[in-house]
Amino acid sequence: MTDRVGLTWHPQLAAAILASRERIDLVEVIPEGVFLESRRAQRALRTLAREVPVSIHGVSLGLASTRPVDDWRLDQFARLVDCVRPECWSEHLAFVRGEGVELPHLAAPARTATTIDATAVNLARAARAVGAFPLVENVATLIDPPGSEVSEQVWLNQLLATTSADVLLDLHNLYANGVNFGFDPAEVLRAIPADRIRVIHLAGGTTVQASTGEQRWLDDHRHDVPDPVYALLEDVGELVPHPVDVVLERDGAFPPFAELLVQLDRARAALRAGRARRASS
Amino acid sequence: MSPAFETFVARLYVDEKLRQAFLADAAAVAEGAGLTADEIRAVERIDRTGLELAARVFEQKRRHRAESIPPAVRWWRRVTGSRRAR
To answer: Which of A11, A36, A179, A232 is the most exposed place for a label (fewest CB within 10 A)?
Structure first.
């Protein structure tokens, strides 16, 4: 069993990542902004993919939507995947637009039977266009998604029952939603089919306060991974029967690179502890 | 929930004027947007704290994204109406 640990690719981290290859097993690349649109950038990414395992992580398709995903967006992803040949690709269980309105960030869908069916259709179309199902990632939300009829856990498990797409489980998103809406993320983790979990995201966040004084936890990718998220990662090591890839997402307020490497080491240690628990149970 | 519902929620997140009108009279604004009776009931129960915070973060993301795009690219997208503006 070989679990792997890596981090999100950023141009400002590129030199440090390549200089620390012995401690970084893989990188995850967000293609929007450069790689989807530039053939030259795609060829550069293909070169990188020969040096280090690369996965593609989309943020713009809006697959968890009652709207059909745009063909031209899927065509972009198909061309990118065909050029780069990443190990896998992934997208969020979010909607990012409505009729005439583009959201600048991911929005959690209403958790209903309608959005499950529509998401499954979008995932099937994405798989046909790109040649493989994306891994699907749970999203963090500050708002209880309007119109929801079931919990996040029920919605996700019902979706997984209707699609062949496997899971990119973001443990910080799970933690944030647990803090914000009063559920135990470890319980939800145990309810997700462990054989469908392929990739793990780790990240950090911070408290935000409303005008009423109520506080919630924001997934901002600008802070260190909090301790409870490492505890969830240990649970993953115990529960998931196959090797997993773990990706540290850090998108700003970058600390010295050595501190990111320390977080990767801590992730490996948490996974090892979980694997040990699994072996002894 | 329909695409119209999703569009309405998306606009609530990013359209300050609509959001203020909605917070003053949720049912009337939702009805004016053509939502069904079930959908109107759903948005009347909206998590108002979450709406405030989500809207704040969406606005921060919008500003950050706008600032991170080089001025020449912003101009070109404005002129061409590029669909790749995201």
So the answer is: A11
